[in-house]
Write a structure and sequence with these properties.
Layout: H1 2-24, H2 26-45, H3 60-80, E1 90-95, H4 102-106, E2 113-118, H5 125-136, E3 141-147, H6 151-156, H7 159-164, H8 166-173, H9 175-183, H10 186-193, E4 198-205, E5 210-213
Parallel strand pairs: 1-2, 1-3, 3-4
Antiparallel strand pairs: 4-5
The structure holds zinc ion.
């Protein structure tokens, strides 16, 4: 009887040891954490009882109040459970389109990423300077993106909208020129030539956040 009980306890301990072992594994925690965050997205996505959608006919004041309330709730949680500070190694240039979620884009909720979001993924001079500063601070990979169904690209292709939004359309038109300009900056050129920096381009599938190859010249070529 005692021997049988010992075997039973031993058998019960095996799954416990496996769970504890898995839990201690950084890979397991990373995947489980991602799954839990994703579960949170799915739980919130379908709720429309108190959201900020147009059909609720909310006034700007009501929207701002709701945003403040939600921020207070979120900030108080973060205040209670501070997050660890990470040193970003990657910088992403991404359009401001709300459908793109950069956490889902990289499958990572930690802050290893500088995220530069602009209208139409435009790489104007201030963004070039900030990306250069990021490289000086240790960033090793820059991903310059565009995305499918981009409103700014749509405006650039529409004669009427081109007249109405000349500034953003001009930046979309100059995308290739701006990228070449950025890569010609001495610090960026030197980082590329020494192999300390890699620049990639990608087109985001807006519905899935999947990174697809961007048609066009490869930034690192000819360095
Ligand atoms: Zn866009």
């Amino acid at each position: 009887m005692t021997k049988k009980r010992g075997i039973l306890v031993g058998l019960l301990l095996i799954p416990v040891a496996l769970i504890v072992g898995l839990w201690a594994s950084p890979g397991f925690q990373f995947i489980t954490g991602g799954a839990l965050v994703n579960m949170g997205y799915r739980m919130q996505d379908h709720i429309h009882a108190f959201d900020l959608q147009h059909e609720h006919d909310l006034s700007p004041d009501e929207i701002w109040s709701e945003l403040q309330r939600q921020n207070e709730l979120s900030a108080s949680v973060r205040d209670a459970f501070p997050r660890s500070a990470e040193h970003p190694l990657v910088a992403l240039l991404v359009c401001m389109d709300a459908r793109i979620d950069t956490n889902e884009l990289v499958g990572d909720t930690r802050r290893y990423y500088y995220i530069v979001r602009t209208a139409g993924s435009a790489l104007a001079e201030p963004e070039q300077e900030m990306l250069e500063l990021a490289v000086i601070n240790g960033v090793k990979v820059i991903v310059l993106t565009s995305h499918s169904d981009c409103a700014a690209e749509g405006a650039a292709a529409d004669p009427e909208l081109r007249e109405r939004f000349p500034a953003v359309v001009s930046l979309v038109d100059q995308r290739e020129t701006r990228i070449r300009e950025f890569m010609a900056r001495p610090i960026i050129r030197e980082a590329l030539d020494s192999g300390r920096l890699r620049i990639e381009r990608a087109r985001i599938d807006t519905l899935t956040d999947r990174l697809e190859p961007e048609p066009g010249p490869t930034p690192n070529a000819g360095s």
